[in-house]
UniProtKB/TrEMBL annotation, chains A, B:
PROSITE patterns in the cross-refs: PLD
Family: Belongs to the phospholipase D family. MitoPLD/Zucchini subfamily.
Membrane-spanning segments: 12-31
Keyword Zinc-finger: no
Name of this protein: Mitochondrial cardiolipin hydrolase
Source organism of this protein record: Carassius auratus
Length: 231, 231
C-alpha cells in the first residue's frame, strides 16, 4: 500500500514536473518572441531616382511571364518595391497625393480597383487637371476621387494607406520626373503609432472635401461629383 | 558551538535570500523596461497647416519672456513642435530641403549655428535663388550649403537629421505657405532603422554635391563655393 502511495506520489511529482517544464518552455518562447519583436513592425526606406527596369511581372500574376521589353528584367528597384507595397492591398487603398501623372502607378491603382479593392483618392484641386494627370482615368474607371476644395490651399501630402495598416509616405509625387529623375524619399511602415495619425488625417480630408458639403461650387457644372460616392 | 553554526547558517540563508530577492527584483524591472520599450523610440506625427501663434519663447531661453506680440501665447502647434525638435540639436543638424524661405525656420538654423551646432544644408539648385529664399542668409552667416549639381534634376527631399539620431521628414517644404496654408505632414522619429538610411542618403548627397568635384561649373563665378568647406 505504502509502495502504491509512493508510486502515486511519484506520478504526481512527475506529472507536475512535466506540466511545469512545458509551461516554462512556453513562457520562455513567449518571452523570446516579445524581446525579438521589440524591433517592431515593418520599416523600409526607398530613395529615388529609381533606374528604369521591367515591372511587368508585378502586374501579371503568371509566374513565368515572358516579357520581351528591352528594359532590364528581374531587378529590384525603389520603384518596384513601391509597386509591390501598393499591389499588396487586399481590402482598401487610401491615397492622398498632390500630383499624379505616373502611368504605371495609375495602372496599379486601376488594377487594385478591378480586383475589388476599395480605392479612395484625395488630390490637389489645381494639379488634378494638369496635362498628363491620371485623375481623369481613375474617375472614368469609377474610382472615387475628391480634391481639396479651397483654391487658395494646396493638398500637398504624398501618402498612401494600404489596408489601413501599411503607410507609404515621403516627398515623392506620383510623376515620372519624381520617380526617374528627382532626389526623393519614401518610407513604408506598419508601425501603428505612425499609421494611425495618417489614417485619421485621410478620413478628416475625405470628409472635409465631400462634394455634398460644397454644392455651391458645382453650380457651373465644371466639376464632376457623380463618381464621388462615400464608401 | 552548534547554536553558533546554525546562526551562521541562518545568516548565510538570509544573505543568499536577500541577494536572490534583490537580483529577482532587478531582473523583473529589466524585463518590465524591455517589454515597455518594445513600443520603441520617439514617433511623432505633425500635420499642417499650423495656426499662427507666438514662438518667441522657443528662441529666448528666459523662462518668463514677456512677449508683447498680438499672436496667441502658450499654445502648442505643429509648427512649434517642429521648432522644438529642430532647436533640440546640440551637436549637428543635417538639412536636406527643396525650398527654404520660412523666416522663423531660418532664424532657428542661424541660432543653432551661433550656438556651435554644425549645420550642413543640401538644397535644390533652382529653388535656392528664388525670391525670399533664406539660403543666402545661411551662407552669409557661414553655414555650409551645397546644392544639387545637375540642372535637370530636383533635390526634392524635405528632411532634417538632428544630432544624427532624430529624423524629421515629410511633405513640408520650409516655406510660409507650406506651414500656414497647405495640407502637409511631418514625421519625427528616433527609430534607428529609419534614421540610418536617411543619414546615409544625406552623406551621399553631401559628397556627390561637393563643389570641389564640380569646379568646371564655377568658371563663370556665379556660384559661391567659398563657404562650402567640408565639415
Amino acid at each position: 500500500m505504502s509502495q502504491q502511495m509512493s508510486c502515486k506520489e511519484l506520478m504526481k511529482v512527475l506529472g507536475l514536473g512535466a506540466v511545469s517544464f512545458v509551461l516554462g518552455v512556453e513562457w520562455l518562447n513567449w518571452l523570446k518572441r516579445r524581446l525579438r519583436d521589440s524591433r517592431g513592425p515593418l520599416k523600409e526606406v526607398l530613395f529615388f531616382p529609381s533606374p528604369q527596369v521591367c515591372v511587368e511581372h508585378l502586374f501579371i500574376r503568371h509566374k513565368h511571364f515572358p516579357c520581351a521589353c528591352p528594359l532590364p528584367h528581374g531587378v529590384e528597384t525603389s520603384f518596384s518595391r513601391l509597386l509591390v507595397h501598393l499591389l499588396s492591398a487586399r481590402v482598401s487603398l487610401d491615397l492622398c497625393v498632390f500630383s499624379f501623372s505616373h502611368m504605371e502607378l495609375s495602372r496599379a491603382i486601376l488594377l487594385l480597383h478591378k480586383r475589388g479593392v476599395v480605392v479612395r483618392v484625395v488630390t490637389d484641386r489645381d494639379y488634378m487637371t494638369i496635362t498628363g494627370s491620371q485623375i481623369g482615368a481613375l474617375r472614368k474607371a469609377g474610382i472615387c476621387v475628391r480634391h481639396e476644395m479651397s483654391s487658395a490651399v494646396h493638398m500637398h501630402h504624398k501618402f498612401a494607406l494600404v489596408d489601413s495598416r501599411k503607410l507609404i509616405t515621403g516627398s515623392l509625387n506620383w510623376t515620372l520626373t519624381a520617380v526617374q529623375s528627382n532626389k526623393e524619399n519614401v518610407m513604408v511602415t506598419e508601425e501603428p503609432e505612425l499609421v494611425g495619425p495618417y489614417q485619421q488625417e485621410f478620413q478628416k480630408l475625405w470628409e472635409a472635401n465631400d462634394p455634398a458639403n460644397h454644392i455651391s461650387q458645382y453650380t457651373n457644372g465644371q466639376l464632376n461629383i457623380k463618381t464621388c460616392k462615400d464608401k
